[in-house]
Each structure stands twice: as structure tokens, then as C-alpha cells.
């Protein structure tokens, strides 16, 4: 399974997806976060929430693109979901493959060795950014949004970030429940 | 051998400064400026800015070499394309190593500028920047 996922994502990356200059991408996201911080008066809890909301809206759309390009079927287990998210999803949109650790049927962690969003970034040293801001929180939202569209309600959050001085950048995803198939999202 | 390094923004505002000694010839990296000189360092560098502004239009190099001197101390300058000036006050002539030092500092500075939370002309408070500058000073000066 994992072998074929790799060939699939290699092929996708080479032939199918549109690419953009990484510095443009990094700087665009960077100015977005910096502007959010200014607009919200450096209330980082709110900045995190906004980033997550943005990511959520991205995720809802991105998952369609994902399926259109990959033709992957439904995952049988949550473990498989973790593999697909890391090896195909992240590869396709960010060209990085995070390590999947601590997998079981209810949760998994993604450890990002490189984070294209956070290149060049140094958090402001105002004493609280290091404790409160999750700079790449948009990813949390993307995962939530995308997985919700495939009937997986998850709770995702960062547990560590190299920007804060941690050793690794780790994103934890916990399965809350498998949503019922019949109810379309947002139609309750 | 002692050095005083300063980065000057486009509005003649200092954005970073560092006093450092050499590690060469069994130096330990502490600056050995005489006390009366220590207080004068920023002034000497500041007064040299006028000369930088004159010289920078006369050639198209970024590294302007030694542009001013003050009782045996020399001031070397480097102007980035964005008109931020790197100034180095030193007591020994070492054109080539200072040139390399400036070029690498410029690389560091560009990386700093790419950080979304750093604003142009703002003073640089980042600890990692400071550490890297010290490493470069150790390597080249």
C-alpha cells in the first residue's frame, strides 16, 4: 500500500499539480499571519482561531481537488487515513512528507521535518508569541475541513513547533466521530 | 584587535550594533577598545556616514572599503542595494576578510528581512541573528 502511495504522489507531483515559487508562497503566508497579528492587536489566541477558520475553508475545497487528482477510494481504517494524508495530501500540496507517529484507531501525529510555511520566520519576541501563537495553524484547519468532508470529524492541534524553540513540529489529529453518511455538511 | 560593527537604516537610524574582539592570535573575542575610545565609537561611525553617502555614488561596488580613519582606527563600509549601511570600525587593515564578512552579513540580513515579523528599518533584536553575526565575526575578523 505505502509503496503505491509513494509512486502515486510522485507522479502527481511531477505531472499533475501546478507549482508556485516557494518564496512567494512563504512570504504570502507570512505577511498574512503578520497582518492578522496586527489587525487583532497581537491577541494570539484569536489569530490562531482565525488561521484555523481560514484553513477550514481551504480544506473543504481542497479535498475535492484532492479526489479529482488522485482517484483514491475510501480509506478503510483511520490508520490508512493517516498514511494518505501524510504521503499524498501533504506531498501534493506542500511537497513535504511528514512522519506519521503514534498511530492508532483514534489518533495520529504528523511530525513535520520541514515546514514550507515557516521558512525564514522568527516569531516576535514580545514574550507571548512563543507561548501562544501557532504560526502554521492554518494546517490544523485544513485537516479539519478536509477530513470533515470525508465524514471524519477530527480534533486537530499543534503540540510543538520548532519556531517556538521545540525540537520538532508536531501536529496531532484525534478522531472525534465518524459522521453519518446521509447528512450533507452544513445542512442540519 | 577590536571591532565595532553597526548597521544603519535608511533614515540614519542604527538597527544593530556589536562590539567584538578578534579570536585570531589567541584573542578571546572580547573587544579591547581604550575606555575613552569606547564612548566615541558610535560617533566616529556616525560621522563617517556622510562620507559613505558621497562615496557610494562614485563607484558601483557594494563594498566601499576603508572610507574614513580616526587616530589609527579605520572605518570600512558596505551599502546594501536597499541602502542599509554596514559600518565596521577596526584597527587593523584587512580588506579581503572584511569584504567576506560584509557579504555574509548581507546574506543574514536578507534572511532577516524575509521574516514576516521583522519590519524594514526596525532595530534587530533577534538573538539568533546576534549569535550568527558573532559566529561570522569569529570566522572572518
List the helices and strands and how they pair.
The complex is a heterodimer of chains A (188) and B (141).
Chain A: H1 2-16, H2 22-39, H3 44-70, H4 78-94, E1 99-101, E2 107-112, H5 129-132, H6 138-148, E3 152-160, E4 169-178
Antiparallel strand pairs in A: 1-2, 2-4, 3-4
Helix pairs in contact in A: 1-4, 3-6
Chain B: E1 2-8, E2 14-21, H1 35-55, E3 63-70, E4 73-79, E5 85-90, H2 95-114, H3 127-140
Antiparallel strand pairs in B: 1-2, 1-5, 3-4, 4-5
Helix pairs in contact in B: 2-3
Pfam family, one (chain A): TRAPP
Protein name (chain A): Trafficking protein particle complex subunit BET3
Subcellular location (chain A): Endoplasmic reticulum; Golgi apparatus, cis-Golgi network
Characterise the protein shown here:
Chain B: This is Trafficking protein particle complex subunit. Chain B: Pfam families: Sedlin_N. Chain B: InterPro entries: Longin-like_dom_sf, Sedlin. Chain A: It is found in: Endoplasmic reticulum; Golgi apparatus, cis-Golgi network. Chain A: Its main location: endoplasmic reticulum. The complex is a heterodimer of chains A (188) and B (141). By secondary structure, chain A is an alpha+beta fold. Chain A has a single domain, classed as Muramoyl-pentapeptide Carboxypeptidase, domain 2, CATH 3.30.1380.20. Chain A has six helices and four strands. The radius of gyration of chain A is 16 Å and the shape is globular. Chain B is of the alpha+beta class and 141 residues long. Chain B has a single domain, classed as 2-Layer Sandwich (Beta-Lactamase), CATH 3.30.450.70. Chain B has three helices and five strands; from the N terminus they run ββαβββαα. In chain B, strands 2-1-5-4-3 form a five-stranded antiparallel beta sheet, with helices on both faces. The longest helix of chain B has 21 residues. Chain B is globular, with a radius of gyration of 14 Å. The mean pLDDT of chain B is 91. The chains are: A alpha+beta (188), B alpha+beta (141). The interface between A and B is medium-sized, with 15 and 11 residues.
